[in-house]
């Protein structure tokens, strides 16, 4: 289906462009949200009449987004989750979680504005882009940790996941214990 874009839409085009999009995308997203009109002669004439008004509205929205972007740019948010010793989360941090965190920080955003392709599933610092306006994107840092102390260590740049050598030593000690239980009991009696 051919549509006239009333605002900039991602990878499809700028305001005023006549583009061909999939029928479902146009019917279910662009047309109901008022982001496009069907490309007919009547609508082309209607668009030319509305063009100045649409450009003014776009500049107003962009100015509001820039104010919000100034507050958000470079901010850091901490998420506490349970995770294994190697840093793999038992759950994940999703767009909904990030939108809630930013909302608690004083700026209300929708989860669709959080631009991550997949949920965060590891401990560490993650840079997350937030699209406030089709022409404006800011980046926040999300620190995923098991507790507040660990979050501070991650912010300083430390690696808090168990190193491979440490795991191998622990596995060897466990293996020794289970192969020779008397040695493990003797160690407990001395304490």
Automatic annotation (TrEMBL):
Region (Disordered): 154-191
GO molecular function, one term: rRNA binding
Gene Ontology cellular-component terms listed: ribonucleoprotein complex; ribosome
The entry's keywords: Ribonucleoprotein, Ribosomal protein, RNA-binding, rRNA-binding
Domain Ribosomal protein L9: 13-40
Matching PROSITE patterns: RIBOSOMAL_L9 (PS00651)
Entry similarity comment: Belongs to the bacterial ribosomal protein bL9 family.
PANTHER family, alphabetized: 50S RIBOSOMAL PROTEIN L9
HAMAP family: Ribosomal_bL9
Function (record text): Binds to the 23S rRNA.
Name of the protein in its database record: Large ribosomal subunit protein bL9
Organism of origin: Rhodoplanes elegans
Lineage, top ranks: Bacteria, Pseudomonadati, Pseudomonadota, Alphaproteobacteria, Hyphomicrobiales
